[in-house]
Amino acid sequence: xxxxxxxxxxxxxxxxxxxxxxxxxxxxxxxxxxxxxxxxxxxxxxxxxxxxxxxxxxxxxxxxxxxxxxxxxxxxxxxxxxxxxxxxxxxxxxxxxxxxxxxxxxxxxxxxxxxxxxxxxxxxxxxxxxxxxxxxxxxxxxxxxxxxxxxxxxxxxxxxxxxxxxxxxxxxxxxxxxxxxxxxxxxxxxxxxxxxxxxxxxxxxxxxxxxxxxxxxxxxxxxxxxxxxxxxxxxxxxxxxxxxxxxxxxxxxxxxxxxxxxxxxxxxxxxxxxxxxxxxxxxxxxxxxxxxxxxxxxxxxxxxxxxxxxxxxxxxxxxxxxxxxxxxxxxxxxxxxxxxxxxxxxxxxxxxxxxxxxxxxxxxxxxxxxxxxxxxxxxxxxxxxxxxxxxxxxxxxxxxxxxxxxxxxxxxxxxxxx
Length: 418
Hints:
CATH class of the largest domain: Alpha Beta
Helix content: 25-40%
Number of strands: 12
Structural class: alpha/beta
Strand content: 5-15%
CATH architecture of the largest domain: 3-Layer(aba) Sandwich
Number of helices: 14
CATH superfamily of the largest domain: SGNH hydrolase
Mean pLDDT: 86
Strand order of the largest sheet: 8-7-9-6-10-11-12
Shape: globular
CATH topology of the largest domain: Rossmann fold
Low-confidence stretches: 79-93
């Protein structure tokens, strides 16, 4: 095993995919894991996240936590006691560009004159909607496009939602009901084709690539399958805002398994320059910022205890960069910010980061919190899987659109009932 992510993750040496298991040593049960990661509260094998005591790593005896066992045997002296000292990558001297993906031969910036929204975060911002169910998106779209009655459609959707990983009867019922409200945006000839008036890009900093070019929004254009940008692109232009009916762009900078201090912050994050480059490349067209991150911070005491401070500093720096690049705002605090609350799976493990997100929005002007279903009220629950299912990401994308619209309209609250 190797100790990674500032001592919060143990990774199996040899993790390289389902068809790459030569030389991997079996566990105590004789099981060979083609991909295995251990954290303090959960572990990941193959494509599934488990609690200790369940799944393929289940072992006899009281000491079922393999993180504790492996860590104490191999890495007990390596645990940091304070924040890691990191050096951010230097900002390149070349001015970053956002180009249309069709203009592959161009060397100059080709930024269209449209309103853009900066989306950033970790894996659920990326997408990964097929991890919970390979067929759920297609089944929901097909069901909503039949001529059957509402009751029949809800029942059929619940069947497929119940088949998704970590589904519950409560989450399936709630997601089916919310999908019904979004049916107008899920017509086959609309949702399955390139969007005519919305573009997106997805820059993954872990690939150390240049800023991605812009392409029409689709269910596969700008994420691992799609993230919240898909429903946002379809719903936001229909809402009553100064931008109603106008073309929009989503600039997404997202990488899975990241921590806010180590990866994203201005003075410590190795990915900060990608955030700054995206803002500069947008040439003053950014209208709002959306942040969906924090799961990995929830497994480390120092990270989660300092998350509120880190989030406050990070958002202030993002706002300052957007303000200085634009003529839309009179001050940095006027830049609208939407925080997406972490989901049900992390809610059941540790709520510290979620509470920090809630406190940040309560105490910070011109911000709103989007619920992702982490709620004691069973009628408000969404997907419990660590990579949210297809329906949950569509619902969250819709809620982001409503939150952004409310902030643009100078409203302090938003109704997320549908």
